[in-house]
Amino acid sequence: MKNIVIGQYVPGKGFFYRLDPRTKIIAVVFLMVAVFLLESILQVSIALLVTLFLMILGRISIGRVAKGLRPLFVLLVFTFSFQIFLNREGARLLAQPMNIGLYSLLAVLVITVLWRLLARFKKFKGALFLLWLSGVYALFAFLPAAGPIYKVFDFEIYESGVVTSIFVVVRLLIVISLSTVLTLTTKPTDLTQGLESLLRPLKRLGVNSDDFALIISISLRYIPTILDEANKIMLAQASRGADFNEGKLVEKVKQIVSLLIPMFIIAFKRSEDLADAMESRNFVPGKPRTRIHDLSFGATDLVTAIFTVIVFAGAIVLRVLP
Amino acid sequence: MVMLLSFLEIRNLSFSYNQKRMVLKHVDLAVERGEWIAVLGHNGSGKSTLAKTIVGLLRPAEGTITVDGITLSDETAYDVRRKVGIVFQNPDNQFVGVTVKDDIAFGMENLSVPKEEMLQKIAFYAEKVGMADYLDKEPSALSGGQKQRIAIAGILAMKTDMIIFDEATSMLDPTSRRELMDYIKTLHQEGLTILMITHDIEEALMADRLVVLKDGAVFADDTAEHLFQRPEAFREAYLELPSALRIYYELEAAGDMTPPLATTLWRFGSGK
Ligand SMILES: Nc1ncnc2c1ncn2[C@@H]1O[C@H](COP(=O)(O)OP(=O)(O)OP(=O)(O)O)[C@@H](O)[C@H]1O
Ligand SMILES: [Mg+2]
Fold first, then answer.
1. Nearest atom (ligand 1) to Cα of B51
2. A189 touches B98 (CB < 8 A)
3. Which residues contact residue B149 at a Cβ distance below 8 angstroms, ignoring those fewer than 6 apart?
4. Interstrand relation of B36-41 and B209-214 (parallel, antiparallel or unpaired)
5. Which residue stretches of chain A have pLDDT < 50?
6. What pLDDT was estimated at residue A247?
7. Residue B144 half-sphere exposure, CB side, CA atoms within 13 Å?
8. Which residues pair with B211 in a beta bridge?
9. CB within 8 Å of chain A, chain B residues 53-112
10. Strand partners for A156
11. Nearest CA-CA partner of A304 in A57, A62, A38, A45
12. ipTM of this model?
């Protein structure tokens, strides 16, 4: 629990690390918008290649970015399936008659159980899922239609479904990669400071970006401490016989409450102490302060800005042109 | 009319958290500029509460606090805090920065110290507390004692006239504690006023004067030498004598005391 690092920041060198966080934030936002302006599969594929090329140029390990994609795997699969099954425009590419019957259902049940049994090989989770999916398809499609049959239907795939699903997934891949590059190469502190600086114009609307950034950075700072605390309380309660893994639902709820109450009390005490410590060190909300990190706009930022402007303008032109 | 005030003047200070029970009872205390005071007292005697009222974090029910001629109130709290810094008891709850560097900088940032000067001071004080190699570390990667050192560095860097240490070295190992105390001694010689809350009687001996709190009231306020002549008073305030003095009094009670041993033990025990 000691080494939880908030954010995905990985120390390193290279182009992206030298950029001012403000440049990075703005560039990522504009590039994301640009990607959403693209309309054809060719355009987004080129954009994906450019993104990959930039990551290689910036010496960012593609593996790391891929890791960042992992939590969103489900989202990608869902988006893909949604498009490919439900989109019924364009030429029909495939029409496979499917039989849902007693035997095919039983067979599906068997492979599902097998799949769940193998689920502990976490490394192959994605591959296993795909294997299971093709298994289900194959069983419904090719198992001889014997025994009771409940439903017969055609499994159809249309051209537009394939195109759109690939288009949507590639676009999502680019957007996620862009934001991963941002969080991978920017310290949480720099990120909040960049945000603070960008939000400064909001001061006229009564939002104090300085305090806002401080709140974020203090939250970031205390998340590991609080997780650590939760761990300690759990151990303390386990040592007195509580078991957080077993028991009925009621028991579990009780145990969670027994965890939350001390955590809240400690958190309140902590925030009181922290407020004291900040105040005694002359912190006054809203009062201007100097900062040890200051942000500076350099040559790399200029290059990035120009690149972003060109891409953004290009995307608009492509969109507007017939 | 010219009144001659000490650097810190506490007059008839009373405080209560919940109206029911007074935690501080009619405390009077004066600390001269450049003086080193140690505050002792049993758990719950009100030491931390006293420290918090001095920097205006708690509002007294009664009494006045004056720091360098400024009478503490909500309006003057900021000015008082520019003169008096405080290192709190719990190192985890006073770490504001995301990294060591940010935390040492926090107080200076609030005082609008220019960036170059801050970086210089961060390096200087991190070195002084032996944490120069940890500047980019996050608090979750530090031990309790290391966090205490950072808290101390952060306050030292603010260059206040007076510093209150609330058991601020309780988690340090003996060697680093000695090193740090030696450094604080140097600062004291350069004119820093110190109020050190401690349970360590040997550490308290470094002070010019000992103030003993008992149940929220000042039980004794005197030099170590004078206090140690009344060992029963010490026991009454739930405190323990330095071990050399305990041996001294035990031997005396046994009627087994030779004069050179007596002087040696006394000198050793009272830090003189
Ligand atoms: N936030 C609070 N609310 C209510 N009562 C409090 C609070 N903080 C402290 N007290 C009470 O005030 C009394 C004095 O507490 P204080 O923390 O000043 O003692 P202390 O001398 O610093 O003790 P220790 O040696 O344990 O640090 C205690 O009886 C304590 O229970
Ligand atoms: Mg205390």
1. 18
2. yes
3. B129, B130, B131, B172, B176, B180
4. parallel
5. 1-6
6. 66
7. 10
8. B39, B221
9. 55, 57, 78, 81-82, 85-86, 88, 90, 92-99, 101-102, 105-112
10. A95
11. A57
12. 0.87
Q: What is the pLDDT of residues A264-278, one digit of tens each?
A: 888 888 889 999 999
For ligand 1, pick from B13, B22, B23, B164 the residue to mutate: most ligand atoms within 8 Å of CB.
B23
Return the pLDDT at B50. Answer: 96
Neighbours of B223 (CB within 10 A): 13
3-state secondary structure A250-299: HHHHHHHHHHHHHHHHHHHHHHHHHHHHHHHCCCCCCCCCCCCCCCCCCH
Residue B212, Cβ density class (10 Å: 0-12 exposed, 13-18 middle, ≥19 buried): buried
The residue among B147 and A321 whose pLDDT is bigger is B147
Backbone angles phi, psi at A245, to 5 degrees: -105, -25
Cβ atoms B69, B7 nearer than 8 A: no
The closest alpha carbon to A219, from A192, A248, A179, A242, belongs to A192
Instruction: Tally Cβ neighbours within 10 Å of residue B104.
Output: 31
Do residues B95 and B103 lie in contact, with contact meaning Cβ atoms separated by under 8 Å?
yes
Spatial CA neighbour of B88 closest among B186, B35, B166:
B166
Angle subtended at Cα B145 by Cα B143 and Cα B151, rounded to the nearest 5 degrees: 105
Q: In terms of Cα–Cα distance, which of A31, A63, A64 is closest to A50? A: A31
Residue A7 has a pLDDT of 59
pTM beyond cutoff 0.80: no
Ligand 1 atom closest to residue B50's alpha carbon, by position in its atom list: 18
Q: Side chain identity at A87, as an amino acid letter?
A: N
Helices (H), chain A: 15-18, 21-37, 41-57, 62-69, 73-86, 102-118, 125-142, 159-185, 188-199, 209-239, 249-280, 299-320
- At B151, the pLDDT band (50, 70, 90 cuts) reads very high
Tens-place pLDDT, residues B10-59: 999 999 998 889 999 999 999 999 999 999 999 999 999 999 999 999 99
Q: What is the pLDDT of residues A88-134, one digit of tens each?
A: 888 888 888 888 888 888 889 999 999 888 878 777 777 888 888 88
Query: Is B179 part of the contact surface with chain A (CB cutoff 8 Å)?
Result: no
- Best probe of the A interface among B84, B93, B125, by most A CBs < 10 A, is B93
pLDDT the model gives residue A2: 38
Q: DSSP alpha helices (H): ranges in B86-200?
A: 100-110, 115-128, 144-156, 174-189
Residue pair A194/A25 in contact (Cβ under 8 Å)? The answer is yes
pLDDT at A153: 80
Is A10 touching B (CB cutoff 8 A)? no
Task: Quote the percentage of chain A above a pLDDT of 90.
Answer: 15
Distance, in Å, from the CA atom of A123 to the CA atom of A115, rounded to the nearest integer, reads 14
